[in-house]
Amino acid sequence: MPVFWLTKDHVFPHPELANDEGILAIGGDLHPDRLVLAYEKGIFPWYSPGEPIIWWSPDPRFVLFPEKVKVSKSMRQILRKGRFQVTVNKSFKEVMIQCQQKRRKGQSGTWITEEMITAYEALHTRGIAHSVEVWDEGKLVGGLYGLAMGKCFFGESMFSHKSNASKAGFLTMVKLLEKQGFYIIDCQVHTHHLESLGAGMISRKEFQTIIANHTTPPLHWQEWTDLEKFPVQF
């Protein structure tokens, strides 16, 4: 299967034309309009500094349906006791920077380039990209970010500096999204961490059908991000 080179036009080939690795296209830019179009079609950018932008549509797709989330007894106790303070959209750029700087096993660098930070900040300003922050005694110790479109949340990256911090943020976000009627959380590619929390594989075809039916009309940040008005319970 060929890999397509993108032009200046905000047009993508059909996701089913991705190669066996899940690579669909190369090139283009990270203009917010192109990014919105990409996510609406189940496509996301993932590349290393110095490389052209690589656009992916993997098959199968790793996702979590909010009602299937798994919360262990020990984690439920941590969340009920308020071990961490969780907020939404309080420090978007800092969450991205922490995700960028987090060193991960088996990775020598980061795919979160400065260009990516600028692009997703623009989406955050538009009310499409969101962050979840986890605090411990006033210090940012965990978090994640992604895009909310319609009733779909497209997760991008998370970080943790303390045990269970990223879990606290992720699980709180899942419950918050469930309360607001979100249908699916896209986790992109498999991780054991998210599998333990209930994520699993579905076919690209099924994923495309779901997002086609649930990404419009766009849902922007409003009161649903206020955990004081919309507290979640475990």
Q: Could you describe the 3D structure shown?
A:
- This protein is an alpha+beta fold.
- The chain contains 7 helices and 11 strands.
- It has helices at 32-40, 73-80, 92-101, 114-125, 165-179, 192-195, 204-214; strands at 4-6, 23-27, 44-45, 54-56, 61-64, 85-88, 129-136, 139-149, 152-160, 184-188, 200-202.
- It has a 7-stranded mixed beta sheet with strand order 6-7-8-9-10-5-11, with helices on both faces. It has a 4-stranded mixed beta sheet with strand order 1-2-4-3, with helices on one face.
- Strand 9 (152-160), helix 5 (165-179) and strand 10 form a beta-alpha-beta unit.
- The longest helix has 15 residues, at 165-179.
- The protein is globular, with a radius of gyration of 17 Å.
- It starts with a strand and ends in a 20-residue tail after the last helix.
- The model has no long low-confidence stretch (mean pLDDT 92).
SSE map:
Layout: E1 4-6, E2 23-27, H1 32-40, E3 44-45, E4 54-56, E5 61-64, H2 73-80, E6 85-88, H3 92-101, H4 114-125, E7 129-136, E8 139-149, E9 152-160, H5 165-179, E10 184-188, H6 192-195, E11 200-202, H7 204-214
Parallel strand pairs: 1-2, 9-10
Antiparallel strand pairs: 2-4, 3-4, 5-10, 5-11, 6-7, 7-8, 8-9
